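Hey,
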Amino acid sequence: DTFANITNMTRRILERGAMPVVLGGDHAITFPVVRAYDQPLHVVHFDAHIDYAPFLHGYEYTNVHAFRHIYHMEHVKSLTQVGIRSLRNTQSWVEDSIQDGNRVITADEFRDLGPSGIVAPLSRDAKCYVSIDIDVLDLPLVPGCVSAEPNGLTYAELRDTLSALAEHTEIIGFDLVEVNPQLDIGTGITSYIAAHTILEFLGQICDQPRWVARR
């Protein structure tokens, strides 16, 4: 079972005291990774899409189901979904997430709140897992993504929000998903911006006093 293997692999990383950094693949990968943790945590999910589909007709382990699974995990204390905007989101899926008590922040709402408004409701030094779908960024920035959408975040907006999360909370793992190099243009800008996001976020995490003290 692929998902069981991902969960077991993540647990082995955690047992060694390391922080998992997971590269997708599609967004189905986040569910078995978050399942591997045994401590209370908060999940912050950056995406154009809500990925909160109901479990119907035998489908429950695809990339559109991940965060409905995650919501039901006992150790997940909150779920914040940032950048949601796609016409492919059904109203019922968004309403289900909100009614379940999750915080759903559209791309337009993000611009009113800014990075500080995203992180403020999370307790200082709370343990936080971050999941980044590359299509949270605006469509022209990510041609190598099958589900890119207009009116997304700029790179600076995503970078600054990840930086605020790294400063305010204890990042205990993250993933970045939905980059498809076969769809990318010749200069590979989608892969580049994904790699840049990962390196910038790692730099911010490792620059925090809590991380330095642990070293």
